[in-house]
């Protein structure tokens, strides 16, 4: 007699786990796992050793996932996606500092401006072809960067940016930000985590909807999509619009986290970094860009602070190797990982390689023998 028949409770549990419910909820469960586990793990003394970096990682995960709606699901490359992040940061900061708006309203204005700008820009360039699309996004982004740097009317602060634009309900104590709502006070990370999960769920609903499936069809074969009656230009415009909107949401969160807006938010380097993070993580998967952002930011912080390798442990220093002079070039090692990931699995990235490795281990040690 099998274990399932001899134990009715175990049988019912196994049947429940065999259903599609877990598959349908895997993304929400994964998002909750990220926000619950990422901070205690990276703050361990053996890793980064402090918690605040988790805020930045979540924001860039959202930005990368927003960008992947364009490159991963639609097949369009934007070289200037930092402008939408910048619309979020500068929109919120300008609304608070110069227009006297409540932060929530200023944030909505910033996201709305980014959404409208993405839609109008998409209408101008969506039909220009992939190469021209990429170049035109770069050109428009550089124009926005130039305008912010010129500081017309004193709105953007020029090269120094804008600082001090925080919501009234945010307080800072010894470098740690708190949400203070009268008698209720809690770490800013928890509010950030809630917004992160909600925004990521919004993206997930988009990519799993008929809209998202149509984007994939356009990516795989645009000419066939046109032949069966799909208005591919309209779908590209709306993919660009939604990508810009969610990128601006990440920008608003970044403005709060950094307590202001800087030109770096609009720079070509930021646009380049988000491209590399997304491809490094894997454009084929919803969690791929998030994995790429995590690997990139973790490596940047960990390797630049890592000075001495002690083996086998600090208490028994049999081998001591000085690495500070080598690991200052952390981008070389990350670039090497990027090259390997692209050569081995161009669209799979580190997340795809991780999934494949886990699957092989499961099949080897825990898979069904049948």
Précis, in short:
By secondary structure, the chain is mostly helical. The chain has a domain of 256 residues. The chain contains 17 helices and seven strands.
Key descriptive features of the protein:
370 residues, mainly alpha, 17 helices, 7 strands, membrane, transmembrane, cell membrane, LivM-like, Branched-chain amino acid ABC transporter permease
Shape: globular
Strand content: 5-15%
Count of strand segments: 7
Order of helices and strands: HHHHHHHHEEEEHHHHEHHEEHHH
Largest sheet: 3 strands, antiparallel
Structural class: mainly alpha
InterPro entries: ABC_transp_permease, LivM-like
Keywords: Cell membrane, Membrane, Transmembrane, Transmembrane helix
Subcellular location: Cell membrane
Transmembrane segments: 25-42, 54-76, 96-119, 131-148, 188-207, 274-299, 319-345
Explained architecture:
With 370 residues, the chain is mainly alpha-helical. It has a domain at 27-282. It contains 17 helices and seven strands. Strands 2-3-4 form a three-stranded antiparallel β-sheet. The two termini are 18 Å apart.
């Amino acid at each position: 007699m099998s274990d399932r028949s001899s134990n009715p409770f175990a049988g019912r549990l196994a049947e429940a786990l065999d259903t599609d419910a877990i598959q349908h909820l895997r993304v929400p469960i994964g998002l909750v796992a990220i926000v619950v586990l990422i901070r205690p793990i990276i703050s361990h003394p053996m890793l980064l050793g402090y918690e605040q970096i988790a805020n930045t990682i979540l924001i860039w995960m959202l930005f990368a996932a927003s960008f992947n709606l364009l490159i991963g699901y639609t097949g369009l490359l934007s070289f200037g996606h930092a402008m939408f992040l910048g619309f979020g940061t500068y929109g919120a900061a300008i609304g608070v500092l110069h227009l006297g708006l409540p932060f929530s309203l200023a944030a909505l204005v910033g996201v709305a401006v980014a959404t409208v700008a993405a839609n109008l820009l998409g209408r101008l360039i969506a039909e220009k072809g992939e190469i021209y699309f990429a170049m035109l996004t770069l050109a428009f982004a550089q124009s926005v960067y130039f305008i912010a740097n010129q500081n017309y009317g004193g709105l953007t602060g020029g090269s120094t940016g804008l600082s001090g634009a925080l919501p009234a309900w945010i307080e800072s104590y010894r470098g740690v930000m708190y949400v203070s709502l009268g008698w209720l006070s809690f770490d800013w990370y928890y509010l950030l985590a809630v917004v992160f999960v909600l925004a990521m769920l919004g993206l997930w609903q988009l990519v799993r909807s008929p809209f998202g499936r149509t984007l994939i069809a356009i990516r795989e074969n645009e000419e066939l999509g046109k032949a069966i009656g799909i208005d591919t230009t309209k779908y590209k415009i709306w993919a660009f619009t939604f990508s810009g909107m969610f990128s601006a949401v990440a920008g608003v969160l970044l403005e709060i986290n950094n307590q202001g807006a800087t030109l770096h938010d609009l720079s070509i380097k930021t646009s380049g970094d988000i491209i590399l993070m997304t491809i490094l993580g894997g454009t084929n998967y919803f969690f791929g860009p998030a994995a790429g952002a995590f690997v990139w930011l973790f490596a940047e912080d960990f390797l630049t602070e890592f000075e001495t390798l002690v083996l086998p442990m600090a208490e028994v220093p049999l081998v001591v190797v000085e690495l500070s002079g080598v690991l200052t070039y952390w981008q070389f090692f990350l670039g090497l990982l990027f090259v390997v990931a692209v050569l081995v699995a161009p669209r799979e990235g580190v997340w795809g390689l991780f999934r494949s490795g886990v699957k092989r281990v499961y099949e080897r040690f825990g898979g069904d023998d049948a």
